[in-house]
Amino acid sequence: MSQVAESLYARIRQEVSAREDRLWDVSLALHRGPETAYEEHRAARLLAGELERDGFEVERGVADLPTAFVARTGSAGRPGAGPCVALLLEYDALPLLGHACGHNLIASAGLGAALAVRAALGEVEGSLLAVGAPAEERGGGKVVEVAAGLFEGVDAALMFHPGVHDWTWAPLTASAQVRVGFHGRAAHPTGSPTEGIDALGALIQLFNTLGVLSKRLPSGSHVHGIVTDGGRATNIVPEYAEGLFGLRGGTTSALEELVEELRSCAQGVALATRTRAEVTDVGGRYEHFRDNEVLSGLFADHLGRAGIRLSEPEPGVYLGSSDFGNVSALVPGIHPWVAIMSSDGSGHTPEFAEAAAGPRARRVMPAAAEALACTAVDVLLRPDVRERAWAGLRAKVAAGL
């Protein structure tokens, strides 16, 4: 297998190299025309068109999401038709900041990997999917895709993420958006002060209560909120006030506990202030990311051929959240972090958006595409890799990790 594998890896390098300029053009096109969550119409058309022209069978609008798609080649995951690998393409941008998270690079690397695997393997028992996944930054496109069954029958879900670290995997927390509304009673604050029930005062008290709660939260867990409705005029006691809260937990179970604590705090404040509290989830919850060491180790080895060395994450450092966590709870997955700027930088900044179209990103993108493609080949052609990857995921799920 080793000689066959080395020959395939060499072919993949050739295929990525032959497409490198076009992949970079795709990346720059996405970068120049950023589109936010569920508005990525141009991006989805561009990427799906590239795959279709190369012989993939493309289904658009999957999971009832207009900007999602699945491109298939091979036996396309039919039962008993062999192994299946999914390469994930993200392409949504941030409001006002554009591609300050580098999703243009995720999309072009995933595209390059898919095209290279198809060209290198030709007809093979098994299938390859390129999954267009919108709305990672907000909205959770992959949450919807998981619920729609898009990853059933998949043996590995592969993607990379540009960042400021070279890490084999990304410490990504579970997260949820929760809206809390307080209902009170309007009144004139001077003429009828005893008749009013101050909903804004209740919301402010909730913020104070959560400030106390935050001091005892475990590592990886926190809660931040904003006021989205604080009343209409200073001479009216607010009858309604609303806050939006972002909650994160080091694990999915820790997040669930934190959401319940928020709910209890809101109800306690409502009781104390004679208001009525409504607590509702906004969008789907992101689960924490479960790295598959078998697959991430293979990716790191392949990326090392390009001179990029990955290390383990720094203990206690968390990099945010992703809806890829929901995928990683279902199938073996990888989400390595590859630097496109120095570690004193930060994602979600204008500087990172600039770096996502810069010379270092130009080198990282094809290297990541090659490593993703080689890892996909490992999964498709080596039963031992699939078996060990699945065993690793099952062990983590059983242990609650």
Q: What is the 3D form?
A: elongated
Radius of gyration: 23 Å
What fraction of residues sit in β-strands? 15-25%
Biggest sheet overview: 6 strands, mixed
N- and C-termini, Cα separation: 33 Å
How many β-strands, per DSSP? 12
Question: Features of this protein?
Answer:
401 residues, six-stranded mixed beta sheet, 11 helices, alpha/beta
Any overview of this molecule?
There is one protein chain. The chain has 401 residues and is an alpha/beta fold. The strands form three sheets. Strands 1-2-4-3-5-11 form a six-stranded mixed beta sheet, sandwiched between helices. The protein is built from eleven helices and twelve strands. The radius of gyration is 23 Å and the shape is elongated. It has helices at 2-32, 41-53, 103-121, 141-147, 199-214, 252-273, 293-304, 324-328, 350-355, 359-381, 383-399, and strands at 57-60, 69-74, 84-90, 127-133, 156-158, 161-163, 174-183, 222-229, 240-249, 276-281, 333-334, 337-339.
